[in-house]
Amino acid sequence: MQTEQSDTVISSFAPAAGYSEELLQQLASQQKSRKKWLLVQPVSNTSMMVDSGTVSMPLNLIMVATIVGKLFDVTFIDERLGERVPEDLSGYDVIAITSRTLNASKAYRIGDAAIRQGKIVILGGVHPTMLQEEASQHCTSVVYGEIESIWTELATDVLKGKMQPVYRAKTLKPMSDMHRPDFSYALNAKNAKKYSSLIPILATKGCPVGCNFCTTPTIYGKNYRYRELDLVLEEMRYHQDRLGKQKINFSFMDDNISFRPKYFMTLLEEMAKIGVHWNANISMNFLDKPEVAELAGRSGCDLLSIGFESLNPETLKSVQKGSNRLGNYEKVVSNLHNNGIAIQGYFMFGFDNDTEESFQLTYDFIMKNRIEFPVFSLVTPFPGTPYFDEMKSRVRHLDWDKYDTYHYMFEPNKMSGEKLLENFVKLQKEVYKGRSIMQRMKGKPLNWVWFVNYMMHRFTKKLSPEYYY
Ligand code: B12
Ligand code: SF4
C-alpha cells in the first residue's frame, strides 16, 4: 500500500565499517552451540498500579527477543509476572536487561550480579540510553536507543567475545526492515496469563513535538518513522488468525500516532475494514477536526491517551507543549465522545505555576467533561531531558526508585511539597470515588475502561501522601 515517504528515509542505513550482515551470518553459523541469552524485564519497587495485577506485554523486550532469537537461544523473564532472575547464571552467556528510570536500580543489581559471574551484560532501554556512564558501571555494554539499528555490530562482537562499552548507531534503520515481533516469547513466559489481553503494536516511532520533560525527542531527535501500512495490517491479521477472532484489542505503543496526518488517516481507513479495536497515544492538535474523530471511531478506536498535562497556559508554554491549545481542550473531548471514544487524560502537577486551586480546576474539568480514565503524575525531571538540566539544582532525589511520578522531585514555588502531595492524593481519591466513577462513566460502553476504573478505585483508596515524601 502506498503512503507518503517516511521523514527519515534511511536509504544509507548500513553497519559501521568492519561489520557486515555477511560476516555476522558467517560467525553465527560457526557457533558450536548457540550462545544463550537471558533477557530480563526487571520489576521496579514502585507501588504504582501499572506494575502489579494485570501487566501489559512488553513490546520492547519482545522486539529484543525477536532479533536475538534469530541467532541465539533466548530465555525471557518478565519479573512483573512474579518470576525472578536466578542467582546462578551459569546456564547463560549473555544477560541482557531492559531498563527505564523506575526500575534502573533493580536492573543494575541484576547487572552487578551477572558481572560478578563473568557474564557479558548488556543494558538497554531509555534509562541506560540517557545515562550511559552510570549504566556502564553495571554492565559490559550499553545500547543507545533501539537494538535493531545496531544489531549487526552488537551480535558480531558477542560472537567474537570482544565487546565495546557503548553501541550507538549512526543512522536509524527504516522501520519496515524490522522483523515482525514474535509474541511467543511473552506468551510462553511463566505466568503469561497475568498479561493483559491488549496486544501491543507499533506503527510509528518518534515525536518531534519536543516537550522538554520527554525523553523521546532527546533519543530520536526530529525523526519520525513509520512502517509500511501493509506490515501493520498484516500483523493485525496475524493476531486475528492466531486468536481465531476478528475483534482484537490492539494497543499502539507509538509515541504519537498522528504526527503524519496522511499516514494516520490511511491507517484508520484500513483498520475500519478489518474490524479491530485499538487505543493509542496521540497529541491533541488535529483532534479538533470532527472528521478525524469520526473516522477514528469508525475504525474501532476505544480510547485515546492524551497529555493534557496542565490547565495553565503558562505551564504549557514553559514545558514547550506546542501541540496543546487550552481553548481546544473541550472541543477535542466532545469530538471524541461524540464518536464513542474514551479518553485517557494525563495531568501533571508540581509545576512552579501550580497553586492549590490548580487541583480544583482540574477536578472540575475532568468531571464536567467526563474524562473516562484520568491519570495523574507529579512532574518528574527524567535524566537526559532538557527539563532535568533545568531543574538539576532543585531535584531532591537521585534515587531512581522514587522516579515513579508519585514522589515529588522538587518543591514548587507556590506550594510546599507536603501540600502538593496532600492535594495530589486527595484529587485522585475524589476522581475515583464510586460516585465520581458513575458520574464520569454512566452510559459508556461496557468494556475494559470500566475495569480500569475499578482498578484505579482500589488503587487510589490505598494512596497515602506520607508514602511518597
Ligand atoms: C507506550 C508507553 C507506555 C504504555 C505502555 C508501557 C509498556 N507496557 O511498555 C503505558 C501507557 C502503560 C505507559 C505508562 C507509563 N509510562 Co510510558 N511510555 C510509553 C512509550 C510511548 C513507548 C514505549 C514502547 O513500548 N515503545 C516501543 C518499544 C518497542 O520501543 P522501546 O521501548 O524504545 O524499546 C526499544 C529500545 O529502547 C531498545 N531496548 C529496549 N530495551 C532493551 C534492552 C536491551 C538489552 C537492548 C539491547 C535494547 C533495548 O530496543 C527496543 C526495540 O526496538 C515510551 C516512550 C518511548 N519511546 O520509550 C513512554 C515512556 C517509557 N513512559 C514513561 C513514563 C514516565 C511512564 C509512566 C510513569 C507515566 C505515568 N505517569 O503513568 C508510566 C509507568 C509505567 C511503568 N510501570 O513502567 C517515560 C519513561 C521515562 C524514563 N526515563 O524512564 C517514557 C520514556 C516517556 C517519556 N516521558 O519520556 N507508558
Ligand atoms: S507530545 Fe508526547 S511523545 Fe511528543 S514530545 Fe510531547 S510528551 Fe513526548
TrEMBL record:
<dbReference type="InterPro" id="IPR058240">
    <property type="entry name" value="rSAM_sf"/>
</dbReference>
<dbReference type="InterPro" id="IPR034466">
    <property type="entry name" value="Methyltransferase_Class_B"/>
</dbReference>
<feature type="domain" description="Radical SAM core">
    <location>
        <begin position="191"/>
        <end position="413"/>
    </location>
</feature>
<keyword id="KW-0411">Iron-sulfur</keyword>
<dbReference type="InterPro" id="IPR023404">
    <property type="entry name" value="rSAM_horseshoe"/>
</dbReference>
<keyword id="KW-0949">S-adenosyl-L-methionine</keyword>
<keyword id="KW-0408">Iron</keyword>
<keyword id="KW-0808">Transferase</keyword>
<dbReference type="InterPro" id="IPR007197">
    <property type="entry name" value="rSAM"/>
</dbReference>
<dbReference type="InterPro" id="IPR006638">
    <property type="entry name" value="Elp3/MiaA/NifB-like_rSAM"/>
</dbReference>
<dbReference type="Pfam" id="PF04055">
    <property type="entry name" value="Radical_SAM"/>
</dbReference>
<dbReference type="InterPro" id="IPR051198">
    <property type="entry name" value="BchE-like"/>
</dbReference>
<dbReference type="GO" id="GO:0003824">
    <property type="term" value="F:catalytic activity"/>
</dbReference>
<protein>
    <submittedName>
        <fullName>Radical SAM protein</fullName>
    </submittedName>
</protein>
<dbReference type="InterPro" id="IPR034497">
    <property type="entry name" value="Bacteriochlorophyll_C12_MT"/>
</dbReference>
<dbReference type="GO" id="GO:0005829">
    <property type="term" value="C:cytosol"/>
</dbReference>
<dbReference type="GO" id="GO:0046872">
    <property type="term" value="F:metal ion binding"/>
</dbReference>
<keyword id="KW-0489">Methyltransferase</keyword>
<keyword id="KW-0479">Metal-binding</keyword>
<dbReference type="GO" id="GO:0051539">
    <property type="term" value="F:4 iron, 4 sulfur cluster binding"/>
</dbReference>
